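comment on this one:
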Amino acid sequence: MVPVRVLPALRRAIDASVAAKRQFAAITPKARKGWVQWVTAAKQEQTRERRIAACVQLLAQGREHPSV
């Protein structure tokens, strides 16, 4: 399986939260790919930034999938 390429901004945001980092490491590669695709699917930078913030918050709450 090919490793999931995480955007640098997303990686920094996840790494800044212990709970989000722990959850991101614990979920399956397919689930990680889902989070990355959800963030990168945003066409505008503002939307990407909002999704990165939401991603960190939801991961910290223990969510496995970005079905927001």
About this structure: Residues 8-60 form one domain. The longest helix spans residues 45-60. The chain is about 65% helix and 0% strand. The mean pLDDT is 93.
